[in-house]
Design a protein that fits this description.
149 residues; Four Helix Bundle (Hemerythrin (Met), subunit A); two-stranded antiparallel sheet
Length: 149
Amino acid sequence: MNSSEIDSRGSGRNRSEIIDLDHRLKGLDEDLSGGGFLEVRPNQEWTPLFTRSFLLTVECYAAVLFQRLRAELFESRLGMPKNDAEVFSILERHGKMDLIEARKLRQFCEARALSSRDLEKLNHAELGEMVSDLSWIREILVRMAHDIS
């Protein structure tokens, strides 16, 4: 990769990866909010239709989000996590998010393994609430992007 490619893609491979991951998250966010997975009930609340396609989209969103958070660690040179859980504690320790946000993100990213769980035992209400409004995730990512810029 020559220097003009580095300049045009950000500050190197990780910055480019962050941009690519942000783009993927945006697409998945649109899929979850407008991909026919949500329906309006008479009380005007959005509720997910629990199909395998919906669950796989949530799983994919969680996996890409986790990749994005790891890329943030490497781009900002904040540390090397020894395990998945440490990603969130390092970001919290360095002020990228508060403790409550770190816990919520960690819980959300656990959805990466939805397809390996018994679908009958999933807490549909909790999962529906988790994906009904993803704006809090976007706010954290926007804040982290501004920290780097």
